Amino acid sequence: MKNTPVPDEFEYVDFPQSELGVCWVYGNEGDVYCKEHECAAKLEEAGYQVRADDKGAYWFFERYVCPRFTTPDDQGKIILDICHFI
After folding, report:
1. What pLDDT, in 10s, does the model give residues 5-63?
2. Count of the separate structural domains present in the chain
3. CA 81 distance to own-chain centroid
4. Sign for the pseudo-dihedral over CA of 34, 57, 84, 67
5. pTM (two decimals)
6. Which of 7, 18, 67, 83 registers the highest number of CB atoms within 10 A of its CB?
7. Sheet strands side by side (includes 78-85)
8. Is 38 part of a structural domain of the chain?
9. Is 14 inside any structural domain?
10. How far is it, in rounded angstroms, from Cα 82 to Cα 33?
């Protein structure tokens, strides 16, 4: 949120207004992490451009949506969202 105060000893990053590309990673909990590169590649294959900041860094985040992340399906698998700025 614009003009939000930052507590002492914390830093912040201002992200420009942007859309998100969201990938759902499906698997056993130990297998769904560290897939950000694969997700970025899938987004680019679909015609999206993953945005870098002015220093060339790419930012992403993991989203833990209930219940699909917290409650495994009948195969014991979950879904983790990996979101990139596009």
Report:
1. 999 999 988 888 899 999 999 999 999 999 999 999 999 999 999 999 889 999 999 99
2. 1
3. 6
4. positive
5. 0.85
6. 83
7. 20-27, 78-85, 60-63
8. yes
9. no
10. 9
